[in-house]
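Entry:
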Amino acid sequence: MLVIHHWDTDGITSAALTIKALGLDDFINIVPPIGEFRFDGRVKKHIEEAEKVYILDLNLPQEVEDVEKDTVFIDHHLQKKIKNPKVRQVNPILERMNGKEFPSASFVVSNHFSLWNSWSSLGAVGDIGNKAFEIPKTLELLKTEGLTKNEALKLVQLIDSNYITMDRSAAEKAVELVLNRPLKELLEYEPWIKNLEEIERTIKDVLSGIEVKNDIAFIEYSSPFNIISKIARKAVWEMGYNGAVVLNRSFHEKAQLYFRISPDLKEKIDMEGIIQILKNRGFNAGGKSEVLGIIFEKNRIDEVLGIINGYLASL
């Protein structure tokens, strides 16, 4: 049995719930390359060798269309209907159910298998943060393991530290740890604590070097950690800037840029228009009305910055 899951807390708890619900002793769980929504050669090799495949919390219908094994695909993202007859697609949105009742893949998995526990809640906290506590079931399930809100939030940070440090094997090992250790005990798991301390130290150092123009924070740094979205959120949501243009000049031989704006700038800045400009130049940019993200070759940093700065200068 092969379980392919997202690398974050929701994906990890969804995998643990699936494995427990099925009573699996003989299984392999893997994640795609962190930060890349695709199946690489390693994932495809495991699929070839598997008898049955579960794919959880991965909005990859285009990849699942090509899977030639008996597959169950459980997700909660907006996506198209899969035509592959070997795939059973479980997604409440496709069934026109109330998406608010399924804030995370862990809730979909729990509903599918009729198995609800603190892992279900932890996945929801991982995906929507404090909003998860507005769902009565979240708090009820956390209490069964004696977890407070703050402990749940801290656990999400600890589990997510594996993908933020880009440690694929650690993200996979996290499923085994969730399956076999009480969540209270994982609050003291030393490797995750060390990860988190290093991440927080790096973020603090990066945020000490902000330049500000017209109430927009411009931040540059170099780090192998996938912290760029956290830095942008902190600059806008916690430090109060109207926007943040964040550039990581050295991210695993590539460059990263993340541009986030506050609600006050949504009417003024056409983020989707900027994304389209970048796409027209051949960049694989994505995002929505308040955020833009892009990973690209280092030799095109000046080109990307020129597009962003040129747009802002025209306002």
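The mean pLDDT is 94.
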